[in-house]
Amino acid sequence: MRLQSIMLTAAAVVAAAFSATGMAAPPEGFRAIFNGKDLTGWHGMPHFDPRDLAKMPKEMRDQKIAEWTEDAKKHWSVENEELVNDGHGAYLVTDEEYTDYELMIDYKTVPLADSGIYLKANPQVQIWDFTETAKFNLGADKGSGGLWNNSPGAAGKDPFVKADHAFGEWNSFKIRQIGARTSVWLNGQLVVDNAIMENYFDRANPLFAKGPICLQTHGGEIRWKNIFLREIPAEEANQILAGSAADGFKSAFNGKDLTGWGGASDNYEVVDGAIRCKEGKGGILHTKDEYANFVVRLEFKLPPSGNNGLAIRTDGTGDPAYAAMCELQVLDSEHANYAKLDPRQYHGSAYGMIPAKRGFLREAGTWNFQEVTVDGSKIKVELNGNVILNGDLSTVTEYMSNTPHPGKDRKSGFFGFAGHGDAVSFRNISIKPLP
């Protein structure tokens, strides 16, 4: 039997199985994370800081989850392949945790109910009674789907449009999250577009790298069904991030040779459509154009223990960590070789000046997506959809090893790579000048 026939037969079996239960079949690539029969795969948890849960000894943590789950069972039930909550009790939380994914979920609620969906244990995609005038001052009149716990005025806090169906009708969400970058469709309408979901529990840090999905209960009956999820592989995640708000970006690398690049070109090569530093070589490979304020997007891949850097506003000479505006570290930070570095030396850091947040690199050998924004003395680094550095070099007064950085006040220069002898690769490099 041909592979295509086998796949079609398997799809037909899955569709028939779901048809027999009355549940919709998962779309291609998705899987059901609610089985339509019981709470298998889910546990109870109220609104609770997941960091506090993680700090508990395992025995205490297991006991706490068991207590919450017993409470959840008093208020959650399954009727006609629907998850039903009476408006009270602990939230229902997936046993699994997710990093980059698409979630599809249908819900139906009642007047005066207030609910939501926590992503990576973080509140929340809001579900409103959009007719409740007493909550119009909170945004209920704008409709459901917004990232309501984002800061006032932040992107995504309010939905673009009110897309809720009337009470008594089912609503359908599609939610996509890559890092903290979150998009929400409600009943087929885009209501949040690639907005950063803030970490409600610690706004000084990015959203958690991974976490469970939580269904909130809050004051009125709500029903859920057709809960499907698809995990997004790294290559696809990178393409989505690169395709968002792409106007104004111009490719800086043709994928074939080093045309348009200068500096230590003999120490770099083009392999499989990527610029790669030659093993044992280094130096600065830089654009032939200079930039003042700009945004650069690129993908990079590290070998185990790999080390390189992004030279920002360099003149192509000297050590870019000191002579350029800065060198942004490109490093396999979690490798054992780097267990005892200064925090200002790990991946994404403005070397020796401002530390980046850790825990958002993919494992060595996997392509990562990074966006760097340089605006005056300010610099922001976003890695795989997570803002890991957002600082102002003009405010730095303490330097690693008390070594000054005379280049940090440079107003313009080349963009480039600062090789340190490892075969680190870069591809899909595009730059957008800013005013």
Secondary structure elements and pairings:
Layout: H1 3-21, E1 31-32, E2 42-45, H2 50-55, H3 58-73, E3 76-79, E4 82-85, E5 91-94, E6 101-109, E7 115-119, E8 122-127, E9 171-178, E10 181-186, E11 189-196, E12 213-215, E13 222-231, H4 234-243, E14 250-251, E15 261-263, E16 268-271, E17 274-277, E18 282-291, E19 294-301, E20 307-314, H5 320-323, E21 326-331, E22 368-375, E23 378-383, E24 386-392, E25 413-420, E26 425-433
Antiparallel strand pairs: 1-13, 2-5, 3-4, 4-13, 5-12, 6-9, 6-13, 7-8, 7-12, 9-10, 10-11, 14-26, 15-18, 16-17, 17-26, 18-25, 19-22, 19-26, 20-21, 20-25, 22-23, 23-24
Describe this structure in words.
With 435 residues, the protein is mainly beta. The chain has two domains: 200 residues, Exo-inulinase, domain 1 (Jelly Rolls), CATH 2.60.120; 196 residues, Sandwich (Jelly Rolls), CATH 2.60.120.560. Helices cover 13% and strands 36% of the residues. It has five helices and 26 strands. Strands 1, 3, 4, 6, 9, 10, 11 and 13 form an eight-stranded antiparallel β-sheet that branches. Strands 14, 16, 17, 19, 22, 23, 24 and 26 form an eight-stranded antiparallel β-sheet that branches. A hairpin with a 2-residue loop joins strand 16 and strand 17. The longest helix has 19 residues. The radius of gyration is 24 Å and the shape is elongated. The termini are far apart.
